[in-house]
Amino acid sequence: MKRYTIAPILSNAGLAELVEAGEKHFEEQLGNLSAELAALPELHLIGLTGPTCSGKTTAAEHLTRALARHGKALHVISIDDFYFNKSYLREQAQESGRQEPDFDSEETIDVDFLRECTESLLAGKPTRMPHFNFHSGCREEGELLCPRHNDLFLFEGIQILYPGVDAILSQSAYRSVYISPSSSIAAGGELFLPNEIRLMRRLVRDYRYRNATPAFTFYLWQSVRENEEKNIFPYVHHCSSRIDSTMPYEIGVLKPYLESILPQIPETDHFWGKGQSILARLDEVQAVPDSYIGPESLYREFI
Fold first, then answer.
1. Chain CA centroid to CA 18, Å
2. pLDDT tens digits, one per residue of 111-159
3. Is 0.85 surpassed by the pTM of this model?
4. Using a CB cutoff of 8 Å and minimum separation of 24, what contacts does 4-12 make?
5. Which domains does the chain have, with CATH numbers?
6. Bridge partners of residue 174, in order along the sequence
7. How far is Cα 36 from Cα 96, in angstroms, rounded to an integer?
8. Using CA of residue 302, residue 258, residue 228, residue 101, what is the dihedral sign?
9. Distance between CA 90 and CA 199 in Å, rounded?
């Protein structure tokens, strides 16, 4: 496993160089991938997958721009938009004896509707796509997608490797891409492993964008990890390409956000200790101001 070792104290110029180096490496990986995909004339479908908080959404946006430079139009479709309504999923969970649905499992996806939309797009038909509203917990009508000849469709989500979803996408010329933090970061006298990095990303993202308390994110994390070990990691070797999304600067960027969010967990809460443990490990990490992060950076997906 690759490791980034961050100096204890960096000047402002040093912090800027650290951010620039991370962004450049990420862009190079996506540039090489886009050239590879553009060279496949029969390609119609692309699957972009990886465990939670790997940077799939931003990678899809970058690939769209990169493929456009090769004369390829890419339409990005989130598998999350095919979620059943939360009210329905909660009813199903309670009937199964669970307090909350496992939103990372295949059962939460309307696979029949996904198949219908995919087949319509491949047939060149105008197709009304869904949009899942995470604040309301409801699936809504989204854009009308009107395919043109030789358009590419990129389906993005952790569910790409699930058997039901894979069976739909692999019906046509298809390439799958796996993205995830795969390098660790040594900072502030602590070593942060890829799975820990993803948890910290998710704590910030879910609080800011999905109306979730840190305690609720901790609660979900165990089922998220179990699902990854069962339904994602065993099948990674099936993917055509891999992207490492670890950013060497990211622990410093996450620190101020986590120091604001984690103290909100009450001392009486079961997950208070987990929050305090993360805060203690961040104590000696140098903060990186988010003003160093550009508007198109991977990290805008989380902060």
1. 22
2. 999 999 999 999 999 999 999 998 898 999 999 999 988 899 999 988 8
3. yes
4. 4/183, 4/184, 4/185, 4/186, 4/246, 4/248, 5/186, 5/187, 6/185, 6/186, 6/187, 6/188, 6/248, 6/249, 6/251, 6/252, 6/286, 8/188, 8/284, 8/286, 9/286, 10/286
5. 3-301 (3.40.50.300)
6. 45
7. 45
8. negative
9. 24
